[in-house]
Specification:
two-stranded antiparallel sheet; alpha/beta; 13-stranded mixed β-sheet; Nitrilase/N-carbamoyl-D-aminoacid amidohydrolase; globular
């Protein structure tokens, strides 16, 4: 069997890049000790996320995809496949990005396409979704608000992704926030999106998120692994931690798609709708 032990992290990160690397090193070491082969770290785990989404927030350090920090991450990953969020510098543009590394090299990189509230005051937007091959299977990447749009995950599934890793800095409610994150409506939405996107595309879904607080943000944690039937195999709940599960990816994807194949049974010719204005 081609079983892969995979893990998704809920952990805090901030502007202290050296401290972030120390935390990542510890998490990778912990995952390696458990035999994890695919590890998802949160959005903006290298340098932290924005302190608020009202525009004008202080910005994280911008790192080049071919720069020394990403090389350091790739070296830490070793024989694991590790996905991690960072602020990407490309000339004078900055992107909210997630990179996938393995064995000292970059396997894939995704720039966040969908930007909530005033995130666009700090980042440029990506414009595409593409899957790529890894030692643990064909994989696609998303970032946070991307998963609120069904077209994002569907584009990756149609490109052959059997595993979708989504990294987030997903906060709880800004208004009428309950004391317990488990009761927060944005925790519930985070979890619903994870389960729905896995089910509708019949893929393995690996969801990491920040924890704790940063500026005005209070993150919901809820890192998890979801199977192609939309069932949660492992979750941290609303506390920091590492959700782990053993998944035979080809087997569970094939089983989910055997009778009710959501990609196979699509009828694209019936879906034309006018664009909203």
């Amino acid at each position: 069997m081609s079983v892969v032990r995979m893990a998704a992290v809920a952990a805090p990160f901030d502007r202290d890049l050296e401290g972030d690397f120390e935390r990542i090193k510890r998490l990778i070491g912990e995952a390696r000790a458990y035999g994890v082969r695919l590890l998802a770290l949160p959005e903006a785990c290298l340098g932290g996320y924005l302190a608020h989404l009202d525009g004008g927030a202080d910005e994280p350090p911008a790192l080049r995809a071919d720069g020394p920090e990403i090389a350091r991450l790739a070296a830490l990953a070793g024989d694991m496949v590790v996905c991690a969020g960072y602020c990407e510098a490309d000339g004078d543009r900055r992107y909210n990005s997630v990179i996938c590394v393995h064995d000292g090299r970059v396997l894939g990189n995704h720039r966040k396409v969908h930007q909530p509230l005033r995130e666009n005051a700090s980042y440029d937007s990506g414009d595409s979704f593409a899957a790529f091959d890894t030692p643990v299977g064909r994989l696609g990447l998303l970032i946070c608000y991307d998963k609120a749009f069904p077209e994002s995950a569907r584009a990756l599934a149609l490109d052959g992704a059997e595993i979708i890793v989504v990294v987030s800095a997903w906060p709880g409610s800004r208004t009428n926030a309950p004391a317990d994150l488990a009761d927060d409506r944005w925790t519930r939405r985070f979890d619903l999106f994870d389960r729905a996107r896995a089910l509708e595309n019949q893929v393995v879904w690996v969801s990491a998120n920040q924890s704790g607080t940063f500026g005005a943000m209070r993150f919901v944690c809820s890192a998890k692994i979801v199977d192609p039937g939309g069932d949660v195999l492992a979750t941290t709940g609303t506390v920091p931690g590492m959700a782990m599960a053993d998944v035979d990816v080809p087997a569970v994807v094939a089983a989910a798609r055997r009778s009710m194949g959501h990609l196979r049974d699509r009828r694209p010719e019936a879906y034309a709708v006018p664009a909203l204005t």
